[in-house]
């Protein structure tokens, strides 16, 4: 679920020297032809390919990823591409773009892309002005690009051949592995959302048995919503990876928020306007960003570290609590209920203190994962101050629902016997439906628990 896919082959046939030289000459000729057409600036893109192998599935995938990211960045910045040429050569693959943008305005954008993207260190993107002169990093007050292996100036290491080909390729594999792990996060989080929706029975929620108190929602709708969110959660993770060289702070949340808004619209498009996962999107988007940052740093964080990062990133949300005319703001002012923002501010303490221990205890006792998740949900219902419940039935309903959950937990059979727990949850589900009470906030925390338990198991890290 979490593990990154296998590497594409790095090996390939060595390109003869004449092919490498021919590729260089063809690239230069193509650059001059595009500049002669009056381009304001020219983007010349290729990938780092130390050694004699200039084409391989590994290098080609890095090229295709960079090509897509570069063109996406230009599109998002509303920079027109007036001409494009792709040089698909044995001696090396290149992309040339004639851009309708001044070179001195384009160069910082490209350097930012190289700096922020996990594969950026493997890309070679030059910006050439309309006068034919390439712009250097030093012209923008930046040091030369660092070596993949040691961090010293890359050109100096290349001239002195300080590092072996094996060292360089190992470093390239490391960048690629981290990138693929980050990209895999969107799919793993989407799968956790589907698993939460499909877990049955669940009081006050849509499941395989019924729609509960949600006549406008169905299980297929939840699946469609989860699938629609996957690419955006990946983008949240990639956005977070761009902050690898700085501590987690509120700037990360500001960077992720536009992606979250796009994801919300994709969710609504997938469901016909029904809000299936807005709370879960908020939680998983932040988690994806902080974990993307950690992976880009080459780290395998446990939950305690991730929870701390989430608190740091969300610190500014404290000022937003109680502001505005939303139901959540009113509940905070009247009852001190933090809702989704409060959970994020705490680093999802309810997962740490309630859901995760409950899951581990029940799984250790029975070896049944679904049973352990149902037990964790019951614990959440007993302890989570769910604003969804308050919105449907008032603060009194929250007290009644929590008391009902505690009453069920008092029966020792529900802990050790999956059938007893399922029967109790089905009765509880009918109780919630009869009172039109939705437990959507607990569902979001359960989805986090589903993902987290798999992450901790597959990576072998501890919380």
UniProtKB/TrEMBL annotation:
GO terms for molecular function: ATP binding; holo-citrate lyase synthase activity; lyase activity; triphosphoribosyl-dephospho-CoA synthase activity. GO terms for biological process: prosthetic group biosynthetic process. Keywords: ATP-binding, Lyase, Nucleotide-binding, Nucleotidyltransferase, Transferase. It catalyses: 3'-dephospho-CoA + ATP = 2'-(5''-triphospho-alpha-D-ribosyl)-3'-dephospho-CoA + adenine; apo-[citrate lyase ACP] + 2'-(5''-triphospho-alpha-D-ribosyl)-3'-dephospho-CoA = holo-[citrate lyase ACP] + diphosphate. It is an enzyme of class 2 (transferase). Belongs to the CitG/MdcB family. This is Probable 2-(5''-triphosphoribosyl)-3'-dephosphocoenzyme-A synthase. It comes from Neisseria dentiae.
